[in-house]
Each structure stands twice: as C-alpha cells, then as structure tokens.
Write a structure and sequence with these properties.
By secondary structure, the protein is of the alpha+beta class. The chain is 34% helix and 20% strand. The protein contains 15 helices and 17 strands. The strands form two sheets. A ten-stranded mixed beta sheet has the order 2-3-4-7-8-9-10-11-12-13, with helices on one face. Strand 3 (23-28) and strand 4 form a beta hairpin. The radius of gyration is 22 Å and the shape is globular.
Length: 498
Amino acid sequence: PVGYSVADNYNTTLVKSAPGGSSLYTIDVDSLGEGTAFILDLHGDSRYDMGYDQGVLIGDKMDASITSLLNYLSGGVEVLNDIMKEILLWQWDIALSKQTPNDYIEELRGITDGSKDTNPNATYNAGDIGAIGIVLANLPGDGSDIVYVLLNELPFIKIQDEYEKKLNNNFNFKLNIKKNNKSNQEEDKTEIKSLEYILKNHINWLNPGCSNFGAWGSRTAQGELYTGRNLDWTTDTGLNNQKLITIYHPSNGYSHATIGFAGLVGAITGISQQGLTVHEANLESNLDTFYGFPWTLRLRFMMEHANNLEEASTLWLPETSNNTCGFNHAIGSSSERSGDPMFMVLETDAGHTATFYDMDDRELNADNGNPRPDALYRTNHGYDPQTIAHYMWNNTGADTDSNERYALFPPIFDSFELGTYDISSAVYTASVLGPKGDDYYKCGGIGTYSDANNVISSAFAPQVNAGILYAAWENGSGDNWIPASCTTYVKVDLSEWW
C-alpha cells in the first residue's frame, strides 16, 4: 500500500569476533546496501569486558559515524568541528555523566581500551566518541534550546573566551563564515563573535521529530502487544553507512536489543528479553537541563532491570534519576495482566514526568486529542497541563506537523477490525507515520523525498524469552536518498539471539 518491503528472511556473515565472546555480523539484505548494516552481539563477564569487545569490533565504525555527523553539524569547518567535540565532551564530563550509572561508564572505558588495542595508531578515542553520541542524542530540537543546554549550565567562562578567540582568529573559519551563515547575510569578519552567536548561526543543528505507538488487548488476536517507533531526524548525514542492531547480554541485567547506528550509544528504541519495548519522541520544552540521566542510556536501563510497567515506573521515579530535556518516552510490556494497559507514555522535561495510559481524560478532553481504547500514541506534543505550559512549539510549523501526524493514528487503528491487529499491522502503522513527502500513504520513489526526514522505522512483537523486531533505516544519499519508511523492514527473530 505505501511502498515499503519486508525481508522475513536474511543471511548473516561473520565479520569479526572479540575476546569476550562477542561477534559482529553483516545483515545480508541487498536493498540495505552492501556492507552497511550489521548485528553486534555483545557478551562479557563484566561491563568493561562487554565494552572492550564493542571497541574491538566497531570502534572504527563509531568514529566514522560521529565524524560524519560532526562534519554535517560544522559544515566541514575544521576548527568549528574541533570546538564542537570539546564542548560536547565538556558537557558529558561535567553534567550528563554525573547521573550515568557506573555500568555504562565502565562500558565506555572498555570501548576506549578495546578500540585502542585493536587500532593503536588511531587518532580517535572511541569511548569519547560514544560519549559525544550520547550528548548529541540528548539535545533538544530547537537551536536556541540546544545552545542553552550547551552553554548556560557550563561554568567555563575562561574556556568560552578561549573558544571565541580560536574561532575568530582562524583564517579558514573566517573564509567560511558567510557560506555557513543560516541567514545568508554578509557578516563583518573582523567583529569578535560570541560563542553563543557562532553556535546559533553556524551550526547545522539536527531536527528531531519522531513518533511511537502501542496496540494490545481487544485490538489483537490474543490480547498481545505490538509497538512501533519512528526516528524522524536530519537526513543523509552519513550515519546510514553504519546501520546497527546491537544485542546486549549484560552479566547483571536482562538481555536487550537496540536499533540505531554505530556511535549512537544506548537505545534510540529497543526490546528486551523480558518483553519490554522502549521508545522516544521529541517534546520541545523550556524546562531543560543536562544534569540528569541521558535518555538513551536510561531506556537501556529500563530494559535491563524492569519486568513490567510497574517496575519501569518505579525505576523512572525522580528519586532514582532526573529527566533532562523534553521528550515523549514510551514503554511497552508484554507481561501485564489481562485487561491491564500494556503501553504507557511518559511526557517528560526537567523535574517533571506525566504518565499516560490509554483513554486518559487529559488527552480525551483536549481539543487536539483523539485517543482510542487499547492503543496509545504520541508525536511531538503533549497533554499534561504542565507539559502544555512549558511547550515551546505553540503556533509553529513543527506543532502543526506534530498534530497532523498524531491525527494519522486514529483512522489507522479504526481501519483494523478488533482482534486482527498484528505485527504486520504494526509495520504498516510505522511506515505510514514515517514522513515520506506530501503523502504519508505513498512512497513516491527516488527524487520525491526532499521533504522527508524518516531515518529509522521499527516495529516490535515483544514476548518473554522470544520476541520479534522489524527494523528499517534510511538508505542512499543525495538524490538517491530514501526514507526508512520506504525501504526494507528486516525481521529479526530474537529467540535466536537471546
């Protein structure tokens, strides 16, 4: 109907093994692009060992991904690229790392050592690259908010002065300052520019959107749960050369799988051996901080330690850790009692979490709310009064887009007779919601995707000690770029991997 394809069967080819028992495989599906999609199966007696194997197996791929992404952000201006790395690592060191559990700090330490031992002449630090990826994923969606969390909380006036001098004295940066100016206006190249000005006007910040959903109970044959998630982001940054499914087997937690790209450490979305799925969508708020638990690691933490929604809710309590920026998180669980909700949404920003289940009055009574029983879905706006009070996209094109995508969900769920919604329905739902141009229901073909921004599209059928995921990524580049929702969804039977 919309033009995507499904690969129910695929072959893998072993690329490399590591000392702790971990392995890297290619996913051999022609339409993904030869040598661009991988499964990383991580094992280890400790978190350090698991990280060490990751550094051995994909340290170079992590570097390739983040280097490509930073080059996109900086417009290829080397000095700006270097300063971006410094600022992002500074943020990690003084803020985001502080509420990160030691397990993940140990993994990053192992990544550094494993990569260094494998590539002793490498000029990069793979653990630092992982930290940069965590910070980038945690950034809000608005340029001014990004600059706020990067600069406003940092006690580094002296260092900021040094950055400004380095930028303003750099000949190559001055030559490029007009070309990269977003307003396309001539600038006085002799004027000293503040770091805030430079970050706001000369960085190509990422543009997140996203959506997530779950359906269960009366909608499915046996009351089982199906979920999905779209990552709508800046496209064609080079990340799609390192497509990655990572299957973690931590020694002190439940096994879990994530879908993403090498270098973006943590869970953009994922599924656990205990039947949990985790999801995210941007929710632009003016309550932002980086003194909290980075969400990509927090979602992994949920999968590692929770058996059901009640346990996940307890783990999310502010007594355990703080939120950072505005996000619509969602968690699904296949282990709920019959008749209980199996999917919850967490509308979050700094110091605030609002939990939603299906048919919540706050959503039901909202002018732009249209909920359904035994289903729950979010794009990039919220329904809790505090969420609404601090929402930053009112009366913007981004808010209009979010509401348009939200409005796609009800008719999709209504189109399936009760008891018939299944994993193929979830793949269909994910594909429709993935922006692909003028028509959400139609993949127009190469050359028609200039307004599309869907880079990962996924669907899940969670089940304890089993489960299935379907993963699709953006593909190609330039005029040949294709959104994930119009490419191939690869089916992975996780009973073969747990």
